[in-house]
Amino acid sequence: MSNKHLFMILALIAIIVAPLIMFNGLGEDEGYFGGADGAAEDHITVINPEYEPWFSSFWEPPSGEIESLLFALQAALGAIIIGYYIGYFKGLKKTEKSENE
Amino acid sequence: MHIMEGYLPVEWAIVWYIISAIVVGYGIMNLNKVLKNNPEAKPLLAISGAFMFVLSSLKLPSVSGSCSHPTGNGLGVILFGPAITSVLATIVLLFQALVLAHGGLSTLGANIFSMGIMGPFVGYLVFKTLRGKLNITWVVVLTAIFADWATYLTTSIQLALAFPHPNFMSSFTDFGTIFAITQIPLAIAEGLITGLLWDYLSKLRPELFEKVMNIKKGGNNE
Question: Interface pTM (ipTM) of the complex?
Answer without folding.
Answer: 0.90
